[in-house]
Design brief:
The complex is a heterodimer. Chain A is built from 22 helices and ten strands. Chain A is mainly alpha-helical. In chain A, helix 2 packs parallel to helix 6, helix 3 crosses helix 11 and helix 5 crosses helix 7. Chain A starts with a helix and ends in a 69-residue tail after the last helix. Chain B is globular. The chains are: A mainly alpha, B alpha/beta. The interface between A and B is large, with 59 and 63 residues. The complex binds iron/sulfur cluster.
């Protein structure tokens, strides 16, 4: 059956723009060019996030405007613009999902969406966001950004790999060395399964999600009781019922002359399919509405209250974001390291839509959707997983692309001061501390010079110490530590600087932080020797020769780390001279 | 060729250099050059990075002695840090560019500059200045390779700890490798020069720290030694402690050191300046000593035939 033109064009444009933004953002070269404005349009995301955050989020005003369009064009947005709807249509077509007879959802099922809407808003009213389970744009973003995009990239990269022998033979350098980085995400499989489920629901009804579940659709529906531009049927209608069978939303009741406007997404299929050309969409026609399965007020209220109840549970639960961190009795998962510039945890969770935009844009793949590191209520919010990659000192994309400001947009100079946590050495795992092996990879890779190698009595080699006030928690050390499985140096959210407003640098300096890029520029010759020497004293060397083995001159080493009285010469990198 | 350049003893060379450190090189280590008919074992060239590089290679007999027309060359720089030449932690871009030029003049079919850095690959390529410096000489020649598909398995017969490892395919297929490290201190191995620099040609280097860093470095060197026909060490500036990237004092030696023997080059570089405030003999650097013991080259600097040239 031919699809109505307008819808197909708009959907293609819209999904294309949506994917364009998402794919574009994930390329490093695109850094700093434009945020994903598409994400600003989610009506529920906008209403819910502003309610939960108790703030006007400027970018999301676009979403509120979308709600208002309900008054004029009904759920046109659902039919033509929403990338989730387009995704479902696309999947249904591409996977040839056939409808099963008699599986049509009844009016009760259609009311679920209002219940979910009420629950979302109810929880948001108490400042806890449950939107992420249900808001369509974040869902679609997660699907395309965290599931499809990596697979596409993997395909491209494999293609490059396959072409490499040819490219090498012809010495096409650019091609033979080209690489498409492939990100990987922790909850990918889960999101994929969730979408497989949503796609499968099309067996019951096309757009089952939009009909029965989508709370954003419900929100629009509330404003679409009798939109200005709407379906109208002329007396030419013979009542053949072709439109009833075609309507993907089940918006046409037994009498095809009427319309359930709250269900109609204005896809215009009925217009195209009518053999009598009796159906039309126009401004303010005299057309009949029909019962739209609105829930009873009591149901709506109950759902709202249950949402609020969930929020209340969240607020009293053990993993509650509401308690102040550092206050006795608050539990913080040591793995819950947030992106730099993330708002204080409570505000952050209220605003974060879990769209995964920051994760798709993160060039090092360190940002991952959380499972339970941030509690049940923090699922799919971004956490930095250093073992996967370190936060790049030259990147601040996460804040720039975040649609809600849950991660603040910061210039690089500020982002550096937005401390994510602090690294600490697990001495019993560390090659240098525990095994006496010469290793300084953590020091080598720390972009901020926050690791100092010192001599201690207990080890024949110099061992790493973290300078807490210089560590920004980027995780470079953790990501490259050669110790297998868990790293011997790990970043925890300890000391993280989370500010709702104001300058991170100012606050950081105020608390004694001293964060700066490490690599030095050339210094005058004959400066003092810095750092503990890795050389052992040659036996019989004059007494003065032992001096450089002291703890680093400026290092805040306690007295117990003074020069090793007689460092064992065997295991040092520098053996005594032969003869 | 530098026939007209007056040959200097290493002592003279170091004395004439405005390098106080030179005096530390110890009288016992210096041997006057006796026979100059053959190419010297090593050359110390003074001057700005590009000119000194050219002079050093010329004094060794010219690039033609190492690179034959039509051969494929890989230059291994040190570009491990996203920082400019002033940081003294990467090989000076002019040294690499000059080496590339010399290779092209000698008729090399293709010259690649390859590394696998710890730090952000693009940052290293851009900020080190090496990619830009080479761009005008051979297009698309500088790469920082990280993906496994660029590497191939290589067995290392007689290895002590590193029986096999993944080495860059382009390195395995090259005819000539030129080691072109920066001379600098290193907290784990004392110094990092030509031998240690080879760690940048393999896929996974972290494990070296677990299995035994010094032995693994020598195992890898034993694999690459036959192709490493030339080592050119950038000692124009040297971070003498606090390496590999500092902070630490940097001395300006204005010297480029070259040798066909990468072990000798490293050994000689150790004697150029004190490290961590003390004089160090090459035999005190374990990986250098192991390499010499395994016959990969010489570390008896006092018996080396060293030429000094000024660019
Ligand atoms: S020690 Fe350095 S590398 Fe590790 S987290 Fe801190 S700043 Fe990053």
């Amino acid at each position: 059956m031919k699809r109505p033109r307008l819808q197909r064009i708009l959907q293609t444009l819209s999904l294309g723009t949506f994917l364009g933004f998402l794919g574009f953002l994930s390329f490093r070269a695109a850094q700093g060019i434009t945020p994903d404005v598409f994400l600003w349009l989610d009506p529920l995301g906008a209403a819910g996030a502003m309610l939960a955050a108790r703030a006007v989020i400027p970018a999301l005003l676009a979403g509120l405007a979308i709600i208002a369009t309900g008054l004029f064009v009904g759920r046109f947005f659902c039919g033509h613009i929403c990338p989730m709807g387009a995704t479902l249509d696309l999947a249904q077509g591409a996977l040839h999902i056939k409808r099963k007879k008699g599986a049509e959802p009844g009016p009760g099922a259609r009311r679920i969406k209002y219940g979910l809407l009420a629950a979302c808003l109810g929880s948001s009213a108490l400042g806890v966001s449950l939107l992420y389970w249900l808001a369509p744009m974040p869902l679609a973003t997660r699907f395309w950004g965290l599931v499809v995009l990596p697979v596409v990239r993997l395909g491209l990269d494999s293609g490059l790999g396959a072409l490499r022998p040819l490219a090498r033979a012809l010495d096409w350098r650019a091609l033979s060395f080209a690489v498409v980085p492939v990100p990987r995400f922790a909850t990918m499989l889960f999101v994929a399964l969730l979408f497989a489920g949503l796609f499968a629901l099309a067996r019951s009804a096309p757009r089952f999600w939009c009909r029965c579940l989508c709370p954003a659709g419900a929100l629009l529906a509330l404003f679409s009781g009798r939109p200005a531009w709407r379906r109208s049927v002329s007396p030419d209608c013979t009542g053949c019922g072709a439109c009833i069978r075609t309507c993907p939303m089940g918006a046409i009741p037994e009498d095809p002359g009427a319309t359930r406007f709250r269900e109609c997404i204005a896809c215009l299929r009925c217009v195209r399919v009518c053999p009598e050309n009796a159906v039309d969409f126009r401004l303010l026609p005299r057309s009949a509405g029909a019962e739209s399965f609105l829930p009873a007020r009591r149901e709506f209220l109950a759902a709202g209250l249950s949402g609020a109840g969930m929020a209340a549970l969240a607020l009293t639960g053990l993993d509650s974001p509401a308690l102040k961190e550092g206050v006795a009795g608050t539990i913080v998962d040591p793995d819950r390291v947030r992106p730099p510039g993330a708002l204080p945890e409570g505000d952050f969770l209220a605003r974060c839509l879990r769209c995964g935009e920051c994760m798709a844009a993160c060039p090092t793949n360190t940002l991952q959707p959380a499972w339970l590191q941030a509690g049940v209520w923090g699922m799919f919010s971004p956490v930095a997983e250093a073992r996967r990659g370190a936060c790049d000192p030259d990147c601040a994309e996460c804040g720039r692309v975040c649609p809600t400001g849950a991660v603040r947009p910061l210039p690089l100079s500020e982002k550096m001061w937005a401390k994510m946590g602090t690294a600490h050495v697990l001495r019993q795992k560390c090659l240098a501390w525990e095994w006496g092996k010469p290793c300084l990879v953590c020091k080598e890779v720390c972009p901020y010079g926050a690791i100092e190698m010192r001599r201690v009595d207990s080890s024949p080699v110099t061992v790493p110490f973290v300078l807490g006030n210089r560590c920004t928690g980027c995780g470079a050390c953790e990501s490259r530590c050669p110790v297998q499985a868990a790293s011997a140096i790990q970043v925890e959210p300890m000391g993280a600087l989370r500010l709702a407003e104001g300058s991170f640098e100012k606050a950081g300096r105020g608390m004694g932080l001293d964060i700066r890029r490490a690599v030095q520029t050339i210094r005058p010759t004959h400066g003092p020797a810095e750092g503990a020497s890795p050389f052992d004293p040659a036996p019989g060397a004059p007494a003065g020769a032992a001096a450089p083995f002291d703890a680093a001159p400026q290092g805040p080493a306690p007295a117990s780390f003074d020069p090793a009285p007689e460092a064992p010469s065997q295991s040092s990198p520098f053996d005594p001279p032969s003869k | 060729m530098s026939q007209r350049t007056p040959r200097l003893t290493r002592r003279d060379f170091l004395k004439t250099g405005a390098v106080a450190a030179g005096t530390v090189a110890g009288s016992g280590l210096l041997a006057p050059l006796s026979t100059l008919a053959a190419a010297p074992d090593a050359v110390l060239a003074k001057g700005d990075p590009a000119a000194a590089t050219r002079k050093a290679v010329e004094a060794l007999g010219g690039m033609a002695a190492f690179v034959k027309p039509g051969q494929r060359v890989v230059i291994k720089p040190n570009m491990s840090f996203a920082a400019g030449p002033d940081s003294a932690c990467n090989t000076h871009p002019a040294v690499i560019a000059e080496l590339m030029r010399l290779c092209k003049e000698a008729g090399a079919a293709r010259v690649l500059v390859l590394d696998n850095t710890l730090a952000d690959p693009e940052g290293c390529l851009n900020l080190s200045g090496i990619r830009a410096a080479c761009q005008g000489i051979e297009k698309d020649s500088v790469h920082n390779l990280k993906e496994e598909r660029f590497f191939a398995k290589a067995a290392i017969p007689g290895a002590k700890v590193l029986a096999e490892t993944l080495v860059m395919q382009d390195v395995l297929e090259a005819d000539v490798i030129i080691a072109a490290p920066k001379a600098k201190s290193h907290g784990a191995t004392g110094v990092t020069l030509a031998l240690k620099g080879m760690m940048g040609l393999i896929f996974e280097r972290e494990s070296f720290h677990r299995i035994g860093l010094d032995k693994a470095i020598v195992d890898l060197a034993s694999l690459l030694k036959p192709k490493t026909k030339l080592a050119v060490i950038d000692a124009t500036t040297v971070m003498t402690s606090g390496g590999p990237y500092g902070p630490g004092p940097v001395v300006k030696l204005d010297t480029v050191l070259a040798s066909a023997d990468m072990v000798a080059a490293d050994a000689l570089a150790v004697t150029l300046t004190p490290w961590y405030g003390q004089k160090i003999a090459p035999s005190q650097v374990r990986h250098i000593r192991y390499a010499a013991e395994r016959g990969l080259g010489r570390m008896d600097v006092d018996k080396l035939n060293v030429a000094g040239v000024t660019a």
